[in-house]
Amino acid sequence: MTTVTDLLIVGGGINGAGIARDAVGRGLSVVLCEQGDLAGYTSSASTKLIHGGLRYLEYYEFRLVREALFERERLLNSAPHIIWPLRFILPHEKGIRPAWFVRLGLFMYDHLAPRKKLPGTEGIKLTRHPAGQALKPGFDTAFVYSDCWVEDSRMVALNAIDAFEKGADIRVRTKLVSARRDGDTWVATLQNVTTDETQEVRAKVIVNAGGPFVADVLNAKLGLNTTKNVRLVKGSHIVVPKLFDTKEAFILQNTDKRIVFAIPYQEKFTLIGTTDIPVESVPDKKVEISQDEIQYLCNVVNHFFKKQVTPADVVWTYSGVRPLFDDGSSNASAVTRDYVFDLDAAQGRAPVLSIFGGKITTFRKLAEHALEELKPFFPNMKPAWTENAKMPGGDMPDADFDRFFATVRQRWPFLPEHLAHRLARAYGTRMEELLGSAKSMADLGEDFGAGLTAAEVDYLVRREWARAAEDILWRRSKLGLHVPVDAAAKIDAYLARKNAASVAAQ
């Protein structure tokens, strides 16, 4: 049976999910296919920040920074459970960037877009500030500014949930095999990578949101060529036992003019990154950090912090390949993080819109711009709507998480506070559906470790397309660093039993 749709979106990262959400809310029919898990490649491998991109000012990316700063406030209001303010300490080091230059950049950062919730920049004396205790002697002054933390892969899931609830057809572990033009429509063959079952989709427009695979989709799957090129840059992060006790993050200037973040992570750890390494191609499987990258990140933080780290201290690493638009820059760090569209719409032939570049902070605006590009093909499309819309779980009064959490403690007093806080952060007001009528921890079923219960696993399978332990531990719950070593095997066995029982019942 052939599915007929307005848009076939290829790619289940932040851009694909964001476009699906926006499009279906405007009245378009949508099929989204993702060959792996939602956010399974680049969108779960970010530095997990909603930020304007302070260092982009150095490359005159004023439009991108301004747009990102506007989006920072909008996203904070739309998803206060998975996004929250974070202060950053930038120790000043003579010889890298003069103090006046840093002050000017931070002044522009504060004033390129309105700030309603986030405090502005201030200068501090590290000799009198608690943060200075973690740093080596010689760092006397610093600047402090605001951005936001985001649970990146959950942001992708929330966009997909919203899209699905508005009518989108979300197909994970489903790859695009090929597509051909048939007059003014596309005929695409999709394949379920688990069962090998093929499906046919007829779409008016294909949106190529393949991320680092965008060129492969165009060339290998659609049989087209593009004049625009993607620049592949690997970004890697390391996680180590926590280096400092302050709640602020650090932004560290390196002698190569790059910056590295050191961010409090899951209470016990420090997240350090990122690198910028040009790569020629994208592996189908997981991309991995190199030993040189690990040493580079260790060297940067060791220059600043009293507590030294070695590669042996690293408890976890993750890497992603960012699909940047190739603007001809010789330096990978200088390549634009802005997004570019390539619309192939020869007269009378079915269009394909390819997305080059982008960043998680600007996904919503990117989706709006993508649909503006497609408006000539859908003249009856409804207007933009996402600017003030809440993400699933984010509909709490005044976007006040602390007030919401107080109601959570009253509503489910049997939850240990740490677990209640994690669930509130992950699911917001959707906790009601996850916990249901539970009156005790026993009502939530088997505990796989770190408070991950069968009830939560069932919810993630039922509502968020989780299919394996990896999806649950490393993207949906982020509990991979906290559960016992055998947790993944137990979860996969549990899922296999549930699936077998479901098949038997049919």
Task: Offer a few descriptive terms.
single chain; 506 residues; alpha+beta; D-Amino Acid Oxidase, Chain A, domain 2; Helicase, Ruva Protein, domain 3; 3 domains; ten-stranded mixed beta sheet; 18 strands; 31% helix; 24% strand; globular
Which SSEs are present, and which pair or pack?
Layout: E1 2-10, H1 14-25, E2 30-33, E3 49-50, H2 62-78, E4 83-91, H3 99-111, E5 122-125, E6 141-150, H4 152-165, E7 169-171, E8 174-182, E9 185-192, E10 198-208, H5 214-221, E11 230-241, E12 249-253, E13 259-265, E14 269-273, E15 277-278, H6 291-304, E16 316-325, E17 340-344, E18 352-356, H7 363-374, H8 401-411, H9 417-427, H10 431-435, H11 454-464, H12 469-476, H13 487-505
Parallel strand pairs: 1-2, 1-10, 2-7, 4-12, 10-18
Antiparallel strand pairs: 3-6, 4-6, 5-6, 8-9, 9-10, 11-14, 11-15, 11-16, 12-13, 13-14, 17-18
Report what the structure shows.
47% of the residues are buried. The chain has 13 helices and 18 strands. It starts with a strand and ends with a helix. It has helices at residues 14-25, 62-78, 99-111, 152-165, 214-221, 291-304, 363-374, 401-411, 417-427, 431-435, 454-464, 469-476, 487-505; strands spanning 2-10, 30-33, 49-50, 83-91, 122-125, 141-150, 169-171, 174-182, 185-192, 198-208, 230-241, 249-253, 259-265, 269-273, 277-278, 316-325, 340-344, 352-356. It folds into three domains: 2-42 and 153-229 and 337-377, FAD/NAD(P)-binding domain (3-Layer(bba) Sandwich), CATH 3.50.50.60; 83-149 and 231-330, 2-Layer Sandwich (D-Amino Acid Oxidase, Chain A, domain 2), CATH 3.30.9.10; 397-505, Alpha-glycerophosphate oxidase, cap domain (Helicase, Ruva Protein, domain 3, Orthogonal Bundle), CATH 1.10.8.870. It has 506 residues and is an alpha+beta fold. Strands 3, 4, 5, 6, 11, 12, 13, 14, 15 and 16 form a ten-stranded mixed β-sheet that branches. Strands 1, 2, 7, 8, 9, 10, 17 and 18 form an eight-stranded mixed β-sheet that branches. Helix 1 (14-25) packs parallel to helix 4 (152-165) and helix 8 (401-411) packs across helix 9. Helices cover 31% and strands 24% of the residues.
